[in-house]
Design goal:
By secondary structure, the chain is of the alpha+beta class. 29% of the residues lie in helices and 15% in strands.
Length: 237
């Protein structure tokens, strides 16, 4: 069996507590999965005009990153750290319909935006209250670089860390299956002593972003997990 869901989903929800040694079970419970990323998807009536692109459509074929400097990033994270939606989030945006026109009607476009940072649990509020605030902060930041973008929005879809947990099944709403901090990275991902895709349950392997190299869409975790599975199968033959 190979699990592609996050480590907490695997060990705390798909298995029974008695399937695991108590010390390992405690590691799974302590694994940090505090989500800090939201998504906004937009249906646009036309292609936004980013001032920095100077009308060059080639620029819009890649990923657009709005993160001016380290201080900006720090301020964006400070908001989520203290439980509020950042009024100036740093943004990763792509417009896939530029490369694949079938994703939107003729002349229209679809945009996908990662919003950093947004807390899993807003302080003194709920995501029902904060959803519009998140959207407004995103549009405000984008409008500084593409002044007329707000007038192009036909529909919007806001995906909060709460949605990522409750609807997408990501523990804590973390898009990378767990925090990518030094103590949950490389040889300690997901746990020290269990970084090579095998688990204490015989025949059960992990292959998701909660394993090394984790995060992003590289396929690295799945590839390396497959190598571990094949190595074990060869030993049994």
């Amino acid at each position: 069996m190979i699990s592609g869901v996050d480590p907490q989903q695997t060990f705390l929800r798909l298995l029974e507590p008695e399937d695991l040694d108590p010390s390992f079970l405690e590691k799974a419970r302590r694994y940090r999965v505090r989500g800090v990323t939201a998504m906004v998807r937009l249906a646009l009536s036309g292609l936004p005009n980013f001032t920095a692109a100077a009308g060059d459509p080639l620029t819009l074929r890649g990923r657009l990153l709005i993160a001016p400097d380290l201080e900006y990033l720090e301020r964006a994270f400070d908001a989520a750290k203290y439980g509020s939606v950042s009024p100036r989030p740093w943004i990763e945006m792509s417009i896939p319909s530029v490369l694949d026109p079938s994703l939107a009607p003729d002349g229209q476009h679809a945009a996908s935006i990662y919003v950093h940072f947004a807390p899993r649990h807003p302080q003194g509020a709920s995501w029902a209250d904060e959803r519009d605030a998140l959207y407004r902060s995103v549009i405000d930041v984008l409008s500084r670089h593409a002044p007329a973008i707000a007038t192009l929005v036909l529909e919007r879809d806001i995906i909060t860390p709460e949605d990522l947990e409750q609807q997408w099944g990501l523990s804590g709403g973390h898009i990378f299956h767990g925090e990518t901090t030094l103590d949950q990275w490389w040889m300690t991902r997901p746990f020290l002593g269990w970084s090579r895709y095998r688990t204490p349950v015989a025949g059960l392997y992990l292959c998701g972003a909660g394993t090394h190299p984790g995060a992003g869409i590289t396929g690295g975790s799945g590839y390396l997990a497959a190598q571990a599975v094949m190595s074990d199968l060869k030993r049994r033959l």
